[in-house]
Fold this sequence. Notes:
It is a single chain. The chain has a 6-stranded mixed beta sheet with strand order 1-6-5-4-3-2, with helices on both faces. Strand 2 and strand 3 form a beta hairpin. Helix 3 crosses helix 5 and helix 4 (about 95-100) runs parallel beside helix 6 (about 115-130). It has 2 domains: about 1-145, no CATH class; about 150-330, Trna Endonuclease, Chain: A, domain 1, CATH 3.40.1350.10. Helices cover about 55% and strands about 15% of the residues. It has helices at about 1-50, 55-65, 75-90, 95-100, 105-115, 115-130, 135-140, 145-150, 160, 165-170, 190-205, 255-270, 290-300, 320-325, 325-330; strands at about 180, 215-225, 225-235, 240-250, 280-285, 305-310. The longest helix has about 45 residues, at about 1-50. It is built from 15 helices and 6 strands.
Amino acid sequence: MIETVQKEFKATIGDVVDKIQQVQLEMFANANKSVLELYFYIGETIENNIQWGNKFVDELSVELKIRFSKAKGYSPRNLRNMRKYYLSVKENEELKELSYKIPWSHNTIIMDRVKNDNEKIWYIKETYNNGWSYDYLENQVKRDAYSRQILGDKPNNFGLTLLQPQSSLAKEIMKDPYIFDVGELRENYVEKDVENALIEKIKMTLLELGNGFSFIANQYRVTVNKEENYIDLLFYHTKLHCYVAIELKNKKFIPEYAGKMNYYLSALDDMLKTEYDNPSIGIILVRDKDKLNVEYALRNINKPIGVSSYELSEYLPKDILESLPTEEELNLHIDIKE
């Protein structure tokens, strides 16, 4: 009884936190709209005077800096970004409205580096819904996250094992591949720093699946008839209202992985799931996978399971790669690729 109350208490707190974050984002979007409408106007003005070339932009920048000395954002470079913004959204009202929801700096990345309107809309929605930072958004655009997320292979049986809207939400949390990047430790590192950073990167990357994820534990113990097994990572999702088990494997997907995850989900549903929870979901992260093999492995399993690939940043220097902790030290199934 006490355990059930504690779970309900945590879930309620999670709902309040999500609501506060939602309102904060809405307040920001309303304030941001006025700024972007101004930038749209300036961008249109620059485009209408394009016959003057760079001279017009440079002189406009000087004049605005003199008249609004305390204001920022009127450098020649940023004025040119305003023109790009105007050209990007002037014929797409949906894109224009959505752009109000994210900061100007984020808009500049999307409008400058993403060419297709559907992709721009997707990146804006993902940034807004998941609170992506500037650096994270830049990395996602660089790695072509749109193609990986929308067009990539993310086999799962969510449509057959979950009711709506859980099945659609579950599909949205999947990424393929996941990128675990510890590249910022190229200098001034010690071995313990690398170990801690790698563990933290794995957690944070999984938490960036979207709003609502709450980390519970790594190596979560499941005991059945005195036999102990361990789930690599366990989360609770406050929007899906279910437990999410994550298994990381250092090899190509094999059908046995699906069977073991099915075992874990059955145990979680019997031992942790309450009447207020939806069925637990499993995500298996592997180094590589064959779509047909995954489909066969999941075909007759009635527990919701998805399979995605993951990779470590490939530009890490050899000395850092050699200093990374072993599988036993991490207590996670992560293999460092030479």
